[in-house]
Amino acid sequence: MKLRTAQLEAANTELETFTYTVSHDLKAPLRGIDGYSKLLLDGYGESLDEEAAHFIRTIRSSTLQMNRLIDDLLKYSRLERSRFKREKIALKSLIESLLTTYQEELKTNHFSVKLLVPEVEIIADPTGLSIALRNLIENSIKFTGDNPNPAMEIGLEEQADSWVIHVKDNGVGFDKKYHDRIFEIFQCLHRAEDYPGTGIGLALVAKAVQRMNGKTWAESAAGEGSVFFIQIPKKISI
After folding, report:
1. How far is CA 100 from CA 48, 105, 126, 134, 183, in A?
2. What is the pLDDT of residue 172?
């Protein structure tokens, strides 16, 4: 037992060092590249031909994407190390609070949002559940925005020994053959030009639910929308 505890402490220390390195040593040069390329465009943009200006804009765009990737990796790392809690959560209030964050985006895109969640309390890790639901809502908004009548439905089904929450949309969907891969880290099933992302959002969902001994899965078909499910057992062992 002592050996195992020492190994875990060493692994955590190594992870913290990695996180520090990523957040400070890797982001610093990115800020420099972004800052100087902006100065170049601002100061000399009018004297550059269109091709040269395009190259610089591409550099800035790539830098921004690298920053997002590092930020998402940090979130994944922090989730791994965060303290697990088991608390009563008023699920409907939590979802309403999360939706408020995206109120402007939902309103601008004329989203129809149906909330089929009764006034119940479930036992879960509050941080993990918030991360999972936030990423599923973001995922739904991102992949449904092109639909002229975008719609999202969030529902809850109580089973004998678990709670099953679903987030359904009428977005672009994805091919059934990717159902098993979609929750893996760095998996992007659509072109980055069409749907920018880092491929970490759904991996965060899977990791957060896995920490609660739960399950995550999705049902979809290309062009027919998607339904994402998270199942949380009523008795969570830590």
Report:
1. 43, 10, 17, 11, 26
2. 83
Q: Which long-range contacts (CB under 8 A, 24 or more apart) does 112-115 make?
A: 112/149, 112/150, 112/151, 112/152, 113/151, 113/152, 113/153, 113/154, 114/151, 114/152, 114/153, 114/154, 115/153, 115/154, 115/155
Residue 18 in tokens:
């990695």
* Tally of CB atoms within 10 A around 17: 10
**Partner residues linked to 166 by β-bridges:** 155, 229
Average pLDDT for 19-29: 74
Tokens 């994805």, located at residue: 174
Which pLDDT does position 233 carry in this prediction? Answer: 93
Cα dihedral across residues 145, 146, 148, 154: positive or negative: negative
Which of the four pLDDT bands, split at 50, 70 and 90, describes residue 88? Answer: very high
The C-alpha atoms of residue 26 and residue 175 are separated, in whole angstroms, by 35
